Predict the 3D structure of the following.
Amino acid sequence: MSSVAQGRQHPVTPGSAALIAGSRALLGLALSWPVAVHAQTVPPEGAEAVLSELSVTGSGERAGGPVVGYRATRSATATRTDTALRDTPQSIQVVPREVLVDQQSVRLTDALTNVSNVQPGGTIQGRSDTYILRGFRTQTYAIDGLVLNPANAFQPTQRDLANVERVEVLKGPASVLYGQGDPGGLINIVTRQPTLVPSADLTVQGGSFAFRRVQGSVSGAIPSVEGLAARFSFGTQNEATFRNFGGPENSRHFFAPAFVWTPDPSTRVYLNAEFTRQHSQYDEGLIAFRGRVPLDNVRRFYGEPWSRYYGEANSITLIAEHDVNENLTLRQAVNGQWGAFNLLATRATGVNAAGTTVTRRLTEGDSIYHSIDSRTEAVGRFIDPFGFRHTALAGFEIVDGYRHPYTTQGAATSVSFLNPIRGSVPQVGTLTLQNDLRQKLSLFGAYLQDQIEFFPGLQLVLGVRFDTADQLYYQRTPANPNRPPEQNLTGTSPRVGLVWRPVEPLTLYGSYTTSFVPQTANILNVASPPPETGEQVEVGARFDLIPDQLTVSAAAFRILRANVAASDPVNTGFSIITGEQRAQGFEGDIAGEILPGWKIIGGIGYLDAEVTRDRFIPVGNRLPAAPVFSTSVWSTYQFQGGPLRGFGFGGGLTYVGERFGDITNTYKVGAYARLDATVFYEIDPTWRFAVNGRNLTDRRYIEQPFNQFNNLPGAPLTVLASLAARY
């Protein structure tokens, strides 16, 4: 285990051995499924389209597999079945690995810049990632379709991309398949799977602000076991960052072993493990004052060099599938997660009326978490008496999550607002309790989904999920020492969608989807407050500008978020259920190849996100960090022949409109446009050299507003070079 300042060792999280043992037990259970189930036979037409997303053989793109170029055509994120994107009645964008390579992406934020109406929403003081999806903040994501610990307020580490095959964003509520979730959408990270054919890659990167990174992956068959393949991916990086102030460099180390076993053509078992260790400077960014965030010095830092953060995240995912026959597939998935973080830092608490002094406090915190998620599903394919084709999904999910953060605080010296001078010494022995939180969340959900094809070009998707949840949210503070009763709730999440293809290049769709999140707010004299809910109506279209090469999509949507909690103005330490928020707008995305070697990906979004009902927040206030207008485009060209064969170049533009930094709209951050570019040369199929420049105009801007004291500025002009070898 690593430690932060003061040399504190973090305790081993309990339960990790049990999670591993549970995974092994479920593997044995999955492989013992019966193989004699009768179903009506479906003609061979479309058989390849229903191959499992775990298959490591076969031709053509499959959901979860590699994408050739910038344009994906299939996904399982929206339906849990291998479905063509054009047959999905909800907006979904895919960022393939080739885009990550061309842009030299080292953050999940870099990948999501390519998706319309998605903005970075704050790093939680350099610890993790949050995002604004269609106007609403989300602080979690899914890996291979399994949502991370539902009890966590945020992940303890930033996501590494070393083993990422594609990043998929499902827009709008997704509770019908994923249970609790935010109304703006779901981010699903699809990992690289092992291959029986040997392959390997290694990339070395270096650039501005002492950035160094090495990442690689090796994959191939394990000769001693028939049908067993393995992949080992890793990434390790160090950087001083442009906001380093004398402390140790930031570092992140990531390792991900994965295995696929196909003992026979009808059985597939996939095991993926991930381990991340992160040391970073605890950095709150810039402070807002009198309605704006001063940008005269983007390196201004109100912490101390010894303010440090350490986080670790671990997960193991096991997915086993068995084809009983060509019409019935059984699937068992189990995911175990555990991790921890600790920190020691100074935090800003206020700015005096004259704008000359920032008051601070000393904070020390420790947190542990663990969870287990078990999901059992059956996918059936049949033709009903009317001749309609069905792909039916039935399943149930059991989730158990826990976290325990413990925070103490004490006095810290004040610093100048415009010229902070560091040098205070932490008085750890004087700290007193700030917060002792225990959250336990147990969920059970049962769901049904049917994709009905009336005839080629007309499909109906119906789905419903029923959830029950038990939650203990015990936040012990000096002002609120009493333990509240457990909360109990039930919820139903329906979904309906229609897909119509009037002519082959054009697909039209409409859908209604819902979401829910159990309340973590402490409501006075209310044991089980109603969950926060969301509902969306969406209509959209997809059109192949160039068949099999270039696709554009567009969507219009309206999302209502209800039962929003706010601070109780009368009873300190409690909240009240007050409000409703609405986000509506439209967006368009493009991905594919215009001409041989000329690729493009991008999106444009318009968003009207505001408070529509509340007892304390003025109606009409904009939702935080949600711009009215935003757009991004990235395009590359690589010569396909002649003396310049293998040479390529490209660039991109990202524009984000002005945003309010908080729900009360007390301050605003300005709009910005950022220019990026790349040149690269593939010497042969083995070697690739690239140089990327970001923020070529050296623009000063706020990339991620979070609250008055947490506003992360964008990096200045940055150059990053890489040398990659592939086998």
